[in-house]
């Protein structure tokens, strides 16, 4: 079985400061990893994904994430946040044996002017 | 290409009623998945349809059902609504072919409120 834990439900951060949103997962098989962003009253938009290869993945809007297999983590980072980054962020895994997504409970990022 | 569309966007029902939500996937996509999003539980997988057949199912009661039509459009139905069914229902489409990974594209969701 798979599970995803997002360790922080809410993260406030000042504009132009760096941010890290944490994600840990548990799985008995290898997985693919994703980060999605959800703006108010919208669906989910893919930020970045790890399928294979380099463990450092770059996504849209200046975000990046690093896959750490030994720690089963996939933390999302941005060196300098903007007001427009205020949103809900979801980490998700898909086992490489199937195509069902398992989502974390989300982290609400609030950027403070 | 047009994105995933969901109708209606907002819905208010009372306990005991039933409701049908609709999802039109991206053109050419054959897989449609449904998720329930609530503040406490996050996104929970309901079911996935591929080529008119249910391919995966989450842990929801039988009151939640779905179907997919030959044009890949999908509907989900919730019967005997309960207050706890109030949620944002998201639909996601993907190409759905064989192989381990298919990127999912999400619609804007249907906000269901049960009074």
Q: What do you see in this structure?
A:
The complex is a heterodimer of chains A (113) and B (115). The mean pLDDT of chain A is 93. Chain A is mainly β and 113 residues long. In chain A, the strands form three sheets. In chain A, strands 2, 5, 6, 10, 11 and 12 form a six-stranded mixed β-sheet that branches. A four-stranded antiparallel β-sheet of chain A has the order 3-9-8-7, with no helix packed on it. In chain A, a hairpin with a 6-residue loop joins β10 and β11. Chain A is built from no helices and twelve strands. Chain B is mainly β. In chain B, 0% of the residues lie in helices and 52% in strands. Chain B contains no helices and eleven strands. In chain B, strands 2, 4, 5, 6, 9, 10 and 11 form a seven-stranded mixed β-sheet that branches. A four-stranded antiparallel β-sheet of chain B has the order 1-3-8-7, with no helix packed on it. In chain B, a hairpin with a 2-residue loop joins β5 and β6. Chain B is globular. The chains are: A mainly beta (113), B mainly beta (115). Chains A and B meet through β6, β10 and β11 of A and β4, β5, β9 and β10 of B.
In short:
Chain A is mainly β and 113 residues long. Helix content of chain A is 0%, strand content 55%. Chain A contains no helices and 12 strands.
Whole-number mean pLDDT of chain A: 93
According to DSSP, the number of beta strands of chain B is: 11
Q: Rounded to an integer, what's the Rg of chain B over CA atoms?
A: 13 Å
N-to-C span of chain B: 37 Å
Helical content class of chain A: under 10%
Q: Largest interface, counted with CB-CB under 8 A?
A: A-B, 24 and 26 residues
Shape of chain B: globular
Q: Estimate the strand proportion of chain A.
A: over 45%
* Poorly predicted runs of chain A: none
Helix vs. strand class of chain B: mainly beta
**Quaternary:** heterodimer
Largest sheet of chain A: 6 strands, mixed
Give the topology.
The complex is a heterodimer of chains A (113) and B (115).
Chain A: E1 3-6, E2 10-14, E3 19-21, E4 23-26, E5 31-38, E6 44-50, E7 56-58, E8 64-68, E9 73-78, E10 87-95, E11 102-103, E12 107-112
Parallel strand pairs in A: 2-12
Antiparallel strand pairs in A: 1-4, 3-9, 5-6, 5-10, 7-8, 8-9, 10-11, 10-12
Chain B: E1 5-7, E2 10-13, E3 19-24, E4 31-38, E5 42-50, E6 53-57, E7 64-68, E8 74-78, E9 87-94, E10 105-106, E11 110-114
Parallel strand pairs in B: 2-11
Antiparallel strand pairs in B: 1-3, 3-8, 4-5, 4-9, 5-6, 7-8, 9-10, 9-11
């Amino acid at each position: 079985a798979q599970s995803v834990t997002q360790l922080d439900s809410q993260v406030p951060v000042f504009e132009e400061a760096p941010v890290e949103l944490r994600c840990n997962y548990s799985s008995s098989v290898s997985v693919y990893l994703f980060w999605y962003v959800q703006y108010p009253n919208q669906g989910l938009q893919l930020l970045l994904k790890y399928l294979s290869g380099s463990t450092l993945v770059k996504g849209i809007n200046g975000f990046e994430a690093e896959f750490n297999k030994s720690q089963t983590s996939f933390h999302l980072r941005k060196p300098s946040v903007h007001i427009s980054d205020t949103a809900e962020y979801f980490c998700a895994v898909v086992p490489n044996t199937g195509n069902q997504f398992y989502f974390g409970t989300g982290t609400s990022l609030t950027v403070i002017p | 290409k047009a994105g995933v569309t969901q109708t209606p966007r907002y819905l208010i029902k009372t306990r005991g009623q039933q409701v049908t939500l609709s999802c039109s996937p991206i053109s050419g996509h054959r897989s449609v998945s449904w998720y329930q999003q609530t503040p406490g539980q996050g996104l929970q997988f309901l079911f996935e349809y591929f080529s008119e057949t249910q391919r995966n199912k989450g842990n929801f009661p039988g009151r939640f059902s779905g179907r997919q039509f030959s044009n890949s459009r999908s509907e989900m139905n919730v019967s005997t609504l309960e207050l706890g069914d109030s949620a944002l229902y998201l639909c996601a489409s993907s190409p759905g072919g064989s192989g381990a990974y298919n990127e999912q594209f999400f619609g804007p969701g249907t906000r269901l409120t049960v009074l």
